[in-house]
Amino acid sequence: SGSRSSKTFKPKKNIPEGSHQYELLKHAEATLGSGNLRQAVLLPEGEDLNEWIAVNTVDFFNQINMLYGTITEFCTESSCPVMSAGPRYEYHWADGTNIKKPIKCSAPKYIDYLMTWVQDQLDDETLFPSKIGVPFPKNFMSVAKTILKRLFRVYAHIYHQHFDSVMRLQEEAHLNTSFKHFIFFVQEFNLIDRRELAPLQELIEKLGSKDR
Asked: Is 80 annotated as a binding residue?
């Protein structure tokens, strides 16, 4: 299954150097470095909310892509025949265009569909304009919310089904920091419905309480 794992590992989406979004990304990285994640997610003064959400969405896509890429060999058709986040939560894939009716599929297949779909949205200049002065579309916020809701499912699957592998690879600190950053971000701007976060609710409360 060597070819599958490389297929699921999407190329990193780069933000063009010298662009305003690149400056925003640098700002995000600098505040993250301070270790205060609640501070790091706040909208920088005078910045456009859509642009801030766009930059961070691309960044989370790259992070999750990398994290999932490290455990693809453990996430197979046989180990994960359904895309789940524990016994109570199962996800079926539909993108509304190619696959209109939700289909049941294995976790690696689901995540491949999901990451390919996200990448197509991020590469669409009408949705995620990379040029200065090009306005974001009216439906940008709903697109971003759908992307983040789906990216959350990859975190949920990794935590529920592959955390032992993450521990063996000594990556739990990296995963926890990435997820905590993600959660603080979506909470700050109210981007994911609380119901959607239910599979990791206990973890979310634990991460949040450490930071008050």
From this structure: yes
Measured in degrees and rounded to the nearest 5, phi and psi for residue 143 equal -65, -45
| Residue found under tokens 């909208």 | 43
Residue 157, annotated ligand binder? Answer: yes
**pLDDT reported for residue 38:** 87
Distance from C-alpha of 195 to C-alpha of 175, rounded to nearest angstrom: 22
What interhelical angle do 172-188 and 201-209 show, nearest 10?
Answer: 90
Backbone φ and ψ for 2, nearest 5 degrees, come out as -60, -40
Q: Tell the CATH topology of 29-209.
A: Butyryl-CoA Dehydrogenase, subunit A; domain 3 (1.20.140)
- Strand-pair partners of 91: 83
Ligand-binding annotation for 105, yes or no, is no
The CA distances from residue 122 to 18, 94, 140, 190, 208, in Å, are: 19, 18, 11, 20, 29
Q: For residue 174, how many other CB atoms are within 10 A of its CB?
A: 15
pLDDT in tens, 166-210: 999 999 988 999 999 999 999 999 999 999 999 999 999 988 776
Which one, of 205, 143, 160, 177, lies nearest residue 66 by Cα?
Answer: 177
Residue 75 assigned to a binding site: yes
If one counts every other C-beta atom within 10 angstroms of the C-beta of residue 22, the result is: 15
